[in-house]
């Protein structure tokens, strides 16, 4: 009998693998060797059945019932049952029990492979994202919650008119095209001088201005609330706590009170904006760690996806926070909690395991607390693909000319570009030191190479940021005093730049240097690659960014190693066009496939699957003939 079982397992597994690898209608075209092997296994199985005198017709019928999911396998009976009449004889469960687990595992693996194959064949576009919403999520609108708004309305100083700005934010860069595709409501803090002037009675304004496709709902915070919630607890506390940038986090009970109140305000706005009792809410970033739990208090059927855009520290570091338990409990109100990298997922699960009472399943990466299950997942964020025409419509030659002429540089000047908020985690000082070292090691580059740093002003009311800005300006001035020849060594542009202008700089540069000391992903790296449809330019990328795990074709460096960074800059400037093209093509191919629509689509597909599972009844308990109960698996 064991010979029959062994041969049946081999045959079923072999045939399943063969057929799973071919599309329907083409499996018979495989090599004749497959046919002969299958025929030989079938003959061996038939011979074994005849030798053991098994009722093969019943065996075959039972096997097909099992494969179709029509037969379940109860536990073996404790007491043998009397044989039924011949006309009613069923194949005993014992015939299938030894192969059941292997077959079920095989079918699950094949289904997982099929799903992965199907997902990889999807061309991720706004239309594909809409199809997910209308198919898997039945057209439900999505509610996004973030602190930063995607559009800011400001009064012009010259004439008092109103202009629209897009903030320099990786979060906005990633989510704005998703909302264009999905519609719905984006809830954010109103921060522009003219924001109140353009909203309706419900504090909403349709955006984008040129072609509205979703609603922006603004929340108004007083200066005291903003100082405590945003500048205080979020950016003087959580931001340095989660980034290894050697800045001490500051925690104040007053800031925590404002953080708690602001999270409550946003939770109330979500409830008011929800059109159903079970909306899909995408909570963005460390400003809203308490929000998932608060949403579920009012909307228990909501599906909350929280994405943590910055790194998650190890348990020892996170335990510094006086309200660590409250933050963890708030985040575990999420149905799905996403991070950029698996390393950050591991850190979060380790933190939960160390600090609070919860059941952690490291095989499925889920956390169960009070009967509430939270899936911890890796979703590396990306950008829209292809870039919109406004970003890349201008020819590269024109970009090169205009950028050099606009900055008073010679036509043949080599250019490096850095694009960051003026933040101490972005490694701007370390980047400037690398440029200085480049000139020390390669004097021929003096006057030939200029590094342009676009630095959007950021959080200037925080002492640490003001001191950082002063240090950056002083260092740039010192390096320029040492090495400027016909052209400056460093051009520091501390001002806001529109996205189209930033892309013009990307397209004009020989090298882009992303030198973050610690970062979740860093979309500047991906934007630079997307901008280079000429397949030229070199990306120098910090190993401490999430992007370094996805773009190994970049020159990956340790930003603290000044000599290594200087060598990478020289290597980039001297790299042959053929090698530049080879590297750039590989990176562009990855970003085109793993774009922002795929990032959002994977989260929404996981949410749809979770919603369907939640509506199923609990697994039944199957009782064996002897009365032994066994939960179905």
Automatic annotation (TrEMBL):
Is the keyword Membrane assigned to this protein? Answer: yes
Q: Which Pfam families match?
A: Glyco_transf_20
Q: Which UniProt keywords apply?
A: Membrane, Transmembrane, Transmembrane helix
Q: Which chain regions cross the lipid bilayer?
A: 36-52
Q: Where is the composition biased (Pro residues)?
A: 75-86
Locate the region Disordered. Answer: 75-95
Q: Which InterPro entries match?
A: Glyco_trans_20 (IPR001830)
Keyword Transmembrane helix listed? The answer is yes
Family, as annotated: Belongs to the glycosyltransferase 20 family.
Q: Which PANTHER family match?
A: BCDNA.GH08860 (PTHR10788:SF106), TREHALOSE-6-PHOSPHATE SYNTHASE (PTHR10788)
Question: What is the protein name stated in its UniProt record?
Answer: Trehalose-6-phosphate synthase
Q: Which organism is this protein's natural source?
A: Dechloromonas hankyongensis
């Amino acid at each position: 009998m064991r010979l029959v079982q062994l041969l049946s397992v081999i045959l079923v597994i072999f045939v399943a693998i063969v057929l799973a690898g071919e599309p329907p209608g083409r499996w018979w075209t495989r090599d004749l060797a497959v046919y002969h092997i299958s025929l030989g296994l079938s003959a061996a199985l038939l011979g074994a059945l005849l030798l053991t005198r098994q009722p093969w017709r019943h065996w075959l019928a039972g096997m097909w019932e099992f494969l179709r999911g029509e037969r379940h396998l109860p536990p073996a009976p404790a007491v043998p049952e009397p044989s039924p009449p011949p006309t009613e004889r069923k194949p005993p469960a014992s015939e299938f029990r030894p192969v059941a687990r292997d077959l079920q595992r095989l079918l699950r693996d094949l289904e997982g492979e099929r799903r992965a194959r199907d997902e990889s064949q999807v061309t991720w576009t706004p239309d594909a994202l809409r199809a997910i919403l209308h198919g898997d999520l039945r057209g439900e609108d999505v509610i996004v919650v973030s602190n930063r708004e995607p559009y800011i309305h400001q009064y012009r100083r010259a004439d008092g008119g109103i202009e629209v700005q897009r903030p320099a934010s990786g979060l906005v860069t990633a989510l704005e095209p998703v909302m264009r595709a999905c519609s719905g409501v984006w809830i954010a803090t109103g921060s522009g001088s003219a924001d109140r002037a353009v909203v309706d009675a419900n504090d909403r304004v349709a955006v984008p201005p040129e072609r509205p496709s979703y609603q922006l709902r603004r929340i108004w915070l007083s200066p005291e609330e903003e100082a405590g919630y945003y500048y205080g607890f979020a950016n003087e506390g959580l931001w340095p706590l989660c980034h290894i940038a050697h800045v001490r986090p500051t925690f104040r009970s007053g800031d925590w009170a404002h953080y708690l109140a602001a999270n409550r305000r946003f939770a109330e706005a979500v409830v008011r904006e929800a059109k159903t009792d079970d909306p899909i809410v995408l909570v963005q970033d460390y400003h809203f760690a308490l929000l998932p739990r608060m949403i579920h208090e009012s909307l228990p059927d909501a599906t909350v996806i929280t994405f943590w855009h910055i790194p998650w520290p190890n348990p020892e570091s996170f335990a510094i926070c006086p309200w660590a338990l409250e933050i963890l409990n708030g985040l575990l109100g999420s149905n799905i909690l996403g991070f950029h990298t698996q390393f950050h997922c591991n850190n979060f699960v380790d933190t939960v395991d160390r600090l609070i009472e919860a059941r952690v399943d490291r095989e499925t990466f889920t956390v169960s607390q009070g009967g509430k299950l939270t899936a911890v997942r890796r979703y590396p964020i990306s950008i829209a693909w292809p870039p919109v025409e406004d970003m890349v419509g201008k020819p590269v030659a024109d970009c090169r000319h205009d950028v050099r002429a606009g900055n008073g540089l010679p036509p043949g000047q080599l250019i490096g570009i850095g694009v960051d908020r003026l933040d101490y985690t972005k490694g701007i000082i370390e980047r400037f030191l690398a440029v200085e070292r480049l000139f020390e090691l390669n004097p021929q580059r003096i006057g030939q190479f200029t590094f342009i740093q676009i630095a959007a002003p950021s959080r200037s009311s925080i002492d640490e940021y003001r001191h950082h800005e002063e240090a950056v300006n002083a260092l740039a001035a010192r390096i320029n005093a040492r090495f400027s020849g016909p052209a400056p060594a460093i051009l520091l542009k501390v001002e806001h730049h529109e996205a189209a202008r930033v892309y013009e700089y990307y397209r004009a540069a020989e090298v882009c240097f992303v030198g973050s000391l610690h970062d979740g992903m860093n979309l500047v790296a991906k934007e630079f690659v997307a901008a280079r449809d000429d397949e030229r330019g070199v990306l120098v990328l910090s190993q401490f960014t999430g992007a370094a795990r996805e773009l190994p074709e970049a020159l990956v460096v340790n930003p603290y190693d000044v000599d290594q960074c200087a060598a990478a800059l020289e290597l980039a400037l001297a790299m042959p066009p053929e090698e530049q093209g080879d590297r750039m093509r590989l990176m562009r191919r990855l970003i085109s496939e793993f774009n922002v629509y795929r990032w959002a689509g994977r989260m929404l597909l996981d949410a749809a699957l979770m919603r369907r599972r939640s509506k199923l009844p609990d697994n039944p308990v199957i009782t064996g003939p002897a009365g032994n109960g066994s939960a179905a698996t």
